[in-house]
Amino acid sequence: MKKFLLSLVLIVLAINTLFAQRDTDHWFAPYFNSSSSTYEHGLYFSTDSVTPFPVTIYNNNVVIGTVTISKGSPQMFTLPSQYITTTNTSSAAVPNNMGVYTKGDKPYFTSLRIYNSIHGEVVTSKGKAGIGTTFYAAATPITTALTSSSAMNFTTGIMATEDNTKVTVTGYDPNIQFINNMTPPLTMNFTLNKGQSYILAGVGNTVANQAGFIGTKISSDKPVSVTNGNANGMFATGNTTAGSDLVMDQSVPTTRLGNEFAMVRSLSPLTNHYDMEGGIIIATENNTEIFLNDATIPVATLNEGDYYRILNSAYISQGGGHYNVYVHSTKNIYLYQLIGSSGGTATAGYNYIPPLNCFLPRKIDEIGNIQAMPTYTGTVVLKLNILTEKGAVVAVNGVAPTAAQGPYDLLGNDQWVTYAITGITGNVSITSTKAVTAGVNGGYSTAGYGGYFAGFSSIPLIAKQTGTCIPGLVLEVDDSFETYQWFRNGIAITGANANTYTPTQSGDYTVRITIGSCPPETTPVYKVYTCLQETTKTMTVCEGLLNILPQFTTSSQVPVPGTVTIVTPPANGTAGVDPITGVITYVPTVGYFGADKIVYKFCGNDPNFVDCEQITLNLTVSKSPVVNNATLRSCFIETNPATALFNLTLASVSTEPGVTKRYFPSPTDAANGTNEITNFTNYIAPTGVVYIRVTNANGCFSVAEVTLIVLAPVESAILKDKIICMEDKTTLDAGPGFNAYEWSTGAITPSITNVGVGTYWVKLKTGDCITKQTVKVYASEQPVISNIDITNNTVTAYVAGGTAPYKYSMDNITWQDSNIFKDVPRGNGTVYVKDAYDCNPIEVEITIPNLINVITPNNDGVNDFIDYSSLAHKPNLVVNIFDRYGSKIYQADKTNGYKWGGTTNGTNKVSTGNYWYDISWNEPNKKQTPIKFSGWILVKNRE
Predict the structure, then answer these.
(1) 559 Cβ contact list (under 8 Å, min separation 6)
(2) pTM exceeding 0.70
(3) Backbone phi, psi, residue 793, to 5°
(4) What angle do CA 821, 823, 828 make, to 5 degrees?
(5) Which 3 state secondary structure label does DSSP give 185?
(6) Which of 230, 243, 448, 488 could form a disulfide with 247 if both were Cys (CB 3.0 to 4.6 A apart)?
(7) Range with the lowest mean pLDDT among 9-13, 70-74, 326-330, 676-680?
(8) Is 445 in contact with 10 (CB distance < 8 Å)?
(9) Are 240 and 144 in contact (CB under 8 A)?
(10) Other residues' Cβ atoms within 10 Å of the Cβ of residue 413
């Protein structure tokens, strides 16, 4: 029992951390009370949010209360003791349902304040920064004599935040005696569900219990919260008989530790000779060197789980009654500050000290009712200690500290300074232009408290906000930094720039953060895994075996055949797994039709982040529909007679009700459901085969074959094109054998008469099909008189075109087979020609000129020249003169009046002799018939 004096003199008793890390989730593990003191418990809540919001309080996952808080309106919730502490031996060293969890929509501070008229303590929650998987237990060494230590203990409460959390505790003194487990094994293992706790405590009247649990390692596979200390404890030196005090604080996991610290001496008098001021250091790694202030030689070298006690003499006076100490180490450590608030040895307390680092917050806003304790209404004296970077501008509730309050240098570290402000009360906000943390110590009557209330999450570290795996996992880092960039497997995630992130893929996640002038910092890797995906699928088995190839529903990994296992076999069949391919073969019981089920599980091939899925496959064993083959016939398409238009739905392939039909061009397509015919009511195809997939309501199908027959066009064999004279008429006859006729003339008889030259059609109906047959009546080709040669009185007509044999006439009455007319009189005449069709003849007018056979070009005015100017009206008239060798010597044409006077060039006379000539022109008719007249002439040149 702690001693106390009935005096008006204020005796303050130091106790632990006052205020918590600002966060949305907080946990408080229970403690074992070995003292005879009865405590009142209160949860204190405050926030910087100006918008009110509720905070819900849970015990063992059941709501036990709610408070609504906002900035300037902190709240206290009276916590019944059965939720947080026990004196019942049977509740230790076993899972219990004690412990408290609080949840809000916005960040807030919370602390558990414990009151007794002569003892007191405040346990501050570190929020999500306080939960983790590796801790080293802390307590103060019990220095009281064994005979006086039955009311003292060490106590560590471990609270699970998730179901099925496996915890291992090891590294304690092998001679330790736990309450309710006096002979424990060297390693303890237990499992907790969410909201459950486990208390390990030992009474101080055993040597191993006085310091043998300090540095014990606590490991778990899921995050837990740890509260540790003494209930009660006494750690004074030089006096082993004085009273005790409640000494307790919430721990942090090793991922939140650092290796540089500063402590400001608390309110105990300088004349205190019992080392109530100082600290407890716990190493987490071997060969950890400890340095104090500016020393270059370590005061101690610790191995994992060892502890070192800093004594009062380590504090350095900075003047003005301000004392501080700089602690640094070669590896990360825990540091708990030991505090005392009076000259005695009973006013004990300790609190966890956050490490110094550039990423501490720039403000602490707000700590509500900083001096309040549950049920206490008296006076409290508190000192506010501030640690910040050198050169920072600091304000408390908007007011800068006085010069007497700081800043004070820190020996051994010229980057940080400390402040001390006494008389602090009410709601407190602290701001700094650089990294800052702060704490208080002080007390009331014979009780006191002190501790730090920010900076526990300043070491950049990823934590899970909600969930444990994908989907449902939300990651976060502290929201006190300025910029954030999330990475997966070292690659920046676009748009992931908030303090929270919801991953959708497994992998190694990190966050790069910045704040102020601090260099960018990247968090350690946080491994994210996918949950076992549980999926329900349905399949139909159609009269036979079913091969099931395990495939992921969402994961991109490839299933590993060797991981395929059947969790629940089928009840109405058999199922086996091919170990090489991983294919599951299901065979229903013969004759069984109905429901069945298989549950199987498989995993992927990623070597680091394996995805697994468990599928519940609901099966329906069903019969396939009965089908029959069919034939469809359809008339040809006029524009493409090799094809027809088919309505495939008219094919009668099944009489079963409730079936659906799909149409395919091949049996393979029908089986696989590929290349489906979508225009099945207007399907154009040649003669061939299509396939109809008939499916029943259970999804089973059969394939029917449908033969398509194109009914080809049927034409009249006797209806042929004809050739007639343009002026004639004829008869077109389609012949018998058709069901109906329809001519382009409107006639509906097998034949039509009095048909002239032109194009005609007839629609011939055979059955349901109609063939449109076209027939043409051509005008016969008229012959053409291509040219006419006239030699003396002989006329020869040349004919082209038409159809031989030709008939010739010059009077259109008498006709001859020969094309030569003799003894034709000179002058104008007409040549008539007709071909074998005996159509109206063609005719060409001709002129047989008067021939001159002798000229005497002697200018006597008689037969001086030949003159054909009378034919000048004939187109292309030319007269050519040739000598006896066939050489052309003269041409009479328009330029010389179609005359020749026996010269070669109009002046040189030719020799007397015979000469040849030809005369050619075109008759001025439609065909421009060429005429050629030839003969000889005697030229007598006389002088």
Answers:
(1) 550, 551, 552, 582, 602, 603, 604, 605
(2) no
(3) -105, 20
(4) 80
(5) coil
(6) 230
(7) 9-13
(8) yes
(9) yes
(10) 18
